[in-house]
Design goal:
10 strands, 7-stranded mixed β-sheet, alpha+beta, 19% strand, binds phenylalanine, 3-stranded antiparallel β-sheet
């Protein structure tokens, strides 16, 4: 009987010690099996061995085993709630901590403005075309009727590339040629895109900026079509009462050529000392004209049969007037506080 009691005590100590080590549910289940499994559990075996004891020792030993079994079951239960609680209780939430900020991007103001312009033109029946930013001398100048060494080339401070006769286009006009080479009239397109000039940045100049070019070629296109188109366009872009005026000018690829001015949006023609219009009340906004017959010949369109008009406008510069931004460089400083202001959301 003493042996039996020792065995029971030994099993209890051993059980208590291993339960102490248990870290997870799996280990707990292993211990449960080790002691209680129906065939080979250490406690089950104890019950089996009762049969070998003498008559009156049986009930005493039975009590001890039952006590051990109760102890084991209770301890396993406690441990299992403890392990369960540890694993399943969610981490406490501290509602006083600042949340995670989601940073939203915003469309760039020049892009927003470009889309506004495109929308007006597409609603007037224009399509959108584009062309390469790296151009050849032929498309940027020669086909546009700038002969080699012609002084008009000096109006554009051109950035030339090392290789071949490549350059960064100084205006979007070369795309006029590219489109007319491929497409026969009627043509009614606008061409937005980046252009490059060797300029030092200042409030009104940038070495890279956006232009939008317009080109219409068809039978019987006249200067009044040009005037009407630009008037409708600028009034829709700015306001219904905008006044515009045409001044004679020169571009090798248009004849006659004009520069287009509109009312100063900043002083509304009221301030003789206005820094934007210099007090004249007018700001220059576009270059335009009737497509020079020589340009049409260069792309094998018969100038006797067809005529056209073209215009070019700086998008960044015009956005400056529309949004009343005093310095064009702000567009490219990537200051989010500036850029986000233009989002409609
Ligand atoms: N390409 C000219 C410029 O950059 C603008 C222009 C375009 C003028 C089309 C006439 C016709 O200044």
């Amino acid at each position: 009987m003493k042996d039996f009691k020792d065995r029971i005590n030994h099993i209890k100590t051993e059980f208590d010690a291993s339960l102490e080590q248990v870290k997870n549910k799996e280990a707990l289940q292993d211990i449960r099996n080790l002691y209680l499994s129906r065939k080979k559990g250490k406690i089950t075996l104890l019950f089996n061995d009762l049969a070998g004891l003498e008559g009156k020792q049986k009930p005493e030993a039975g009590k001890l085993i039952n006590a051990l079994k109760t102890h084991v079951l209770k301890s396993l239960d406690e441990k299992s709630t403890e392990a369960g609680t540890k694993r399943e209780k969610p981490a406490p939430v501290d509602l006083t901590l600042p949340g995670h900020k989601t940073w939203w991007g915003a469309p760039h103001p020049v892009l927003i403005f470009k889309q506004e312009i495109e929308n007006i033109f597409t609603s007037m029946g224009f399509s959108i075309a584009d062309g390469p930013e790296i151009e050849t001398d032929y498309y940027n100048f020669e086909a546009l009727n700038f002969p080699p060494h012609h002084p008009a080339r000096d109006d554009w401070d051109t950035l030339y590339l090392d290789k071949g006769d490549l350059l960064l286009r100084t205006h979007t006009s070369p795309v006029q040629i590219r489109v007319m080479e491929k497409q026969k009239p009627p043509i009614r397109i606008v061409i937005p895109g980046r252009v490059y000039r060797k300029e030092t940045s200042d409030p009104t100049h940038l070495p890279m900026f956006y232009q939008i070019e317009g080109l219409v070629v068809d039978k019987d296109i006249t200067f009044s079509h040009l005037k009407g188109t630009l008037e409708v366009f600028l009034r829709r872009l700015f306001n219904e009462n905008l006044e515009i005026r045409f001044r004679p000018s020169f571009f090798p690829f248009t004849e006659p050529s004009a520069e287009v001015d509109m009312n100063c949006t900043v002083c509304k023609r009221q301030d003789p000392d206005c820094r934007v219009c210099g007090g004249s009340g007018w700001i220059e906004i576009l270059g335009a004209g009737m497509v020079d017959p020589q340009v049409l010949k260069n792309v094998s369109i018969n100038p006797e049969e067809y005529s056209g008009f073209a215009f070019g406008m700086g998008i960044d510069r015009t956005a400056m007037f529309a949004y009343r931004i005093p310095d064009m460089r702000l567009f490219y400083e990537n200051d989010l506080r500036f850029i986000r202001q233009f989002s409609k959301k």
